[in-house]
Specification:
single chain, about 260 residues, alpha+beta, 6-stranded antiparallel beta sheet, 6 strands
Length: about 260
C-alpha cells in the first residue's frame, strides 16, 4: 500500500497509542515508571520504533488484515528497536571515557552497553506485542471502512498486476470514456469487467464485444458499438467496486 495514502498517516498516528499502551504495560510490570526528563529518551525510542515499524508494515501489507498488520508492526518494530540500540552501542564505543583503574574496558563495553541492550531488546519483544496487535486491529477496523469509501471514488485502477497494459474504470467514468470515443468517431470493440476486492483488482471473467458487420458503415458501427457498450455498463449488476475496461482498435485504453 502506498505511503501517500491518507490512511497511512492515520495509521502512523496510532503509534502514539502504541507508545502509551507500552508505557502503561511497563508501569504495571515494573511497578514504577515516571514520565520525567530521564524517561523522555526511552519514550522517544519507543515512539520511533513504532513509527518505523508501522511504516514498513504498511508498505508490505497489501490488505488491511488486522492479524498481518499487527504481526508486521510487531516484527519490524523489533528490528527498528534493535537498530536504534545498535546505533547507541556504536556511539558509546566511539565515545569511550576513561574508567577507574579498578574497572576494565572489556567489562564496561560488554556488560554495561551490549548486555543491557540485549535485555532491553528482550523486554521490548514482550511488551510491544499487545500494543502492535491492538494497533493492527484498530487500523483494520477504522480504516477498512474508509478504504471502501475511497474505492468508490476512484477514477481508474491499473490492470498491470493482472498482466494487462491498461486501466479499468468505475461505471460513471467508463460511460464518460465511452461517450468520448463516440464523439471522436472511434468504435468500441468491447470491454471487460473487474471487481475491487480488499484493495486488489480481480477479473470477473465477464465481458462484451461488438464486431463490425460486413454491410455496416464505419459511422453506423461507431454508433452501434457505443450503444452496446453503454447498455452493458449501465445494466451490469452490482454497483460497488465494479470497474470496466474499454477496448478500442485491439489496444487497451489508457488515460
Amino acid at each position: 500500500m502506498k505511503l501517500t495514502d491518507k490512511r497511512f498517516w492515520i495509521f502512523e498516528a496510532l503509534a502514539i497509542l502504541s507508545t502509551a499502551t507500552t508505557i502503561g504495560i511497563m508501569q504495571v510490570c515494573l511497578g514504577r515508571f515516571e514520565l520525567d526528563g530521564d524517561s523522555m529518551p526511552i519514550c522517544c525510542i519507543i515512539l520511533t520504533s513504532y513509527l518505523v515499524g508501522q511504516t514498513v508494515a504498511w508498505k508490505v501489507s497489501k490488505y488491511l488484515k488486522w492479524l498481518k498488520l499487527g504481526l508486521s508492526t510487531y516484527f519490524y518494530s523489533i528490528i527498528s528497536f534493535a537498530s536504534i540500540f545498535a546505533f547507541i552501542i556504536i556511539l558509546d564505543y566511539l565515545d569511550r571515557k576513561p574508567l577507574p583503574v579498578d574497572v576494565s574496558a572489556d567489562t564496561h563495553i560488554v556488560f554495561s552497553t551490549f548486555s543491557i541492550s540485549l535485555v532491553a531488546l528482550f523486554l521490548w519483544s514482550i511488551v510491544s506485542f499487545i500494543p502492535s496487535m491492538l494497533t493492527g486491529f484498530i487500523a483494520s477496523l477504522c480504516l477498512s471502512s474508509k478504504k471502501s469509501k475511497s474505492d468508490r471514488t476512484l477514477k481508474s485502477v491499473s490492470l498491470e498486476l493482472l498482466g494487462v497494459n491498461g486501466f479499468a474504470y468505475p461505471r460513471k467514468e467508463a460511460l464518460k470514456i465511452a461517450n468520448g470515443y463516440f464523439n471522436s468517431n472511434k468504435p468500441i470493440l468491447g470491454g471487460d469487467v473487474y471487481k475491487l476486492v480488499n484493495g486488489r483488482i480481480e477479473s470477473t471473467s465477464d465481458s462484451w464485444y461488438c464486431d463490425q458487420k460486413e454491410s455496416e458503415s464505419s459511422y453506423d458501427y461507431v454508433v452501434r458499438s457505443y450503444h452496446i457498450a453503454c447498455d452493458y455498463i449501465r445494466d451490469y449488476p452490482g454497483k460497488a467496486n465494479t470497474f470496466f475496461s474499454i477496448v478500442i482498435e485491439q489496444i487497451e485504453d489508457e488515460i
